[in-house]
Amino acid sequence: MTSDTPCSAQSVAIIGGGPAGLMAAEVLSQAGFKVDLYDAMPSVGRKFLLAGVGGMNITHSEAYPAFLSRYAGRAPMIAPLLRSFGAEALCEWIHGLGIQTFVGSSGRVFPTDMKAAPLLRAWLKRLRDGGVVIHTRHRWLGWNADDSLRIANAEGELAIRPAATLLALGGASWARLGSDGAWVPMLERRGVKITRLQAANCGFEVSSWSVLLRSKFAGAPLKNIAMGLAGLPLRLGECVLTHTGLEGSLIYALSAQIRETINLQGSATVEIDLLPGKSLVDVQKALSKPRGSRSVAKHLHNQLGIDGVKAALLREVVPAASFADPALLAHAVKGLKLTLIRPRPMDEAISTAGGVAFEAMDQRLMLNLAPGVFCAGEMLDWEAPTGGYLLTGCFASGRAAGLGMVEWLRHA
Ligand SMILES: Cc1cc2nc3c(=O)[nH]c(=O)nc-3n(C[C@H](O)[C@H](O)[C@H](O)COP(=O)(O)OP(=O)(O)OC[C@H]3O[C@@H](n4cnc5c(N)ncnc54)[C@H](O)[C@@H]3O)c2cc1C
C-alpha cells in the first residue's frame, strides 16, 4: 500500500463512471458533498459512447404502464426509481444540458444529432464545474480488512475511507470498455446475494449451419419477418443470419424468453414467419399454382418474392420432401422452426441480466450487509430490452442511489 488518504466525513466515493455513477455524482455534488469518482479505464462513459455509435436511443416515449412492463419481473423494484426519474424527467434533464431530443417513428427517444459524445461532454463539464473529481485509471479492488476501499493506480494502491461509497460498475459485457463483472466475487465475499450474470439482448447459436449457408449468407439481413418462441405470439422485425446463428434487434427483443427456455430445456425452438404480410391460405394458394418446368426456388421467387437468405434458410431447415408439397412448404414459410442452443458469449451482449439482488439492498439501494455502500446501474439484478429502457434504468437507479446516499449521510 503506498498511501492512506482518509476523506473528510462529507466525502463520497463513486466507483464507475458510466451513466449510473455519473448521475449519482451529480446528485451528490449538487447536495454539497465532495465527490471523488474512480474509474478503471483511461476515460469515463465508454459504453455510453458506444451506445451512441449506432444512434443513441436514450429512452422511450410510450405510456408509463407499458414502459414499466419492459422490466418484466423486476418492474416492482424499478417502479420507485422511475417514479422519481422516469423518461420525461430524463428528457428534461438532457434538455438542461443543451441537448435537444426527438421521438422516432417507433416511439424511441434520441438526441437530435443521435450522438452520445456531445451529451457526455456537456455533462462532464457540468460535473467538473460542480466540483466532482474524476480519477481515471483507478481500479477498485475490493476492501481492506479495516473496510477502506482498495484502489489501484499507476503508482500503487490507495486505501480510501469515504463517508459513503457507490458501486456503479456496470454489467459484464464489452469488458474492453470497463464493465468486466470482476466485482461479482468481491461482493460475494461480503455475503451479498448476486444473481448469476447472463447475456441479455444477445444473439443465439444454432447447432450448426451448413457450409453453404454460412459461406454465402452469413451477415445477410432477414428483413420483414416475424418471430417468436414456438406456440407464442410472433413479433415483427428483422435480424441477421450470422456464422453461428442469429443476431439483431428481433432476436434481442426475444432474448430473455429464449435464454430462459434454453436454461430450462437445453434449447429453444423459435418459429419464423418469412412472409408476415401474407396469410397461410394465400401463401398456400400461390405455391399451389402450376409451376411447369420451373424449379421450386424459381416458383418461390416468382409467386412470393422469396429468394436470397430467406430461400436459403428454407432450404437449410425444411426437409427436401416438403419442397414438393405446396401445403407443407407454405407451413414452413409461415412458421419455420429453428432450434437455438445457446446465447452468444456474454461479452458480446448489449447488456447483462442478473447482478446484485434487490433483496440485498434497502429501498435507498444501500447494501444491507455493508452500511454506507450503495449500488446502481446495470450491476443490479434487472434486465430490459433495447429501446432506451437500459439507459433509463441506469440513470434512474444512479439518481436514486445518489439521493439515498444524501439521505443516509445526513442521518448517519
Ligand atoms: C453496443 C451497445 C449499444 C447500446 N445501446 C444502448 C442504447 O441505445 N440504449 C440504451 O438504453 N442502452 C444501450 N446500451 C446499454 C447501456 O450502454 C448500458 O446499460 C449502460 O451503459 C450501463 O450503465 P452503467 O453506468 O450501469 O455501467 P457502465 O456504463 O458499464 O459503466 C461502468 C463503469 O464502471 C467502471 N468499472 C468497472 N469495474 C471497475 C472497477 N473495479 N474499478 C473502477 N472502475 C470500474 C467501468 O470502467 C465503466 O466505466 C448499449 C450497450 C452496448 C454494449
Chain-wise SSE layout:
Elements: E1 3-6, E2 11-15, H1 19-30, E3 34-38, H2 46-51, E4 59-60, H3 64-69, H4 75-84, H5 87-96, E5 101-103, E6 108-111, H6 117-129, E7 133-135, E8 139-143, E9 149-153, E10 156-161, E11 164-167, H7 183-189, E12 194-200, E13 204-205, H8 211-217, E14 221-229, E15 235-241, E16 245-247, H9 249-253, H10 255-265, E17 268-273, H11 280-288, H12 296-304, H13 308-317, H14 320-323, H15 326-334, E18 336-340, E19 342-343, E20 351-356, E21 373-375, H16 389-411
Parallel strand pairs: 1-10, 2-3, 2-11, 3-7, 11-21
Antiparallel strand pairs: 4-6, 5-6, 8-9, 9-10, 12-20, 13-16, 13-19, 14-15, 14-17, 15-16, 17-18
Helix pairs in contact: 1-16, 4-16, 11-15
Structural class: alpha+beta
Q: List low-confidence stretches.
A: 1-9
Compute the number of structural domains. Answer: 2
Helical content class: 25-40%
**CATH class category name of the largest domain:** Alpha Beta
The number of helices is 16
Instruction: Report the oligomer.
Output: single chain
Question: What is the rounded distance between the termini?
Answer: 29 Å
Question: What fold name goes in the CATH topology slot of the largest domain?
Answer: FAD/NAD(P)-binding domain
Give the strand order, joined by hyphens, for the main sheet. Answer: 18-17-14-15-16-13-19
Largest sheet: 7 strands, antiparallel
Indicate the CATH architecture of the largest domain: 3-Layer(bba) Sandwich
Please state the average pLDDT score. Answer: 96
Which ions and ligands are bound to the chains?
flavin-adenine dinucleotide
Radius of gyration: 25 Å
Strand residues, percent: 15-25%
Principal-axes shape call: elongated
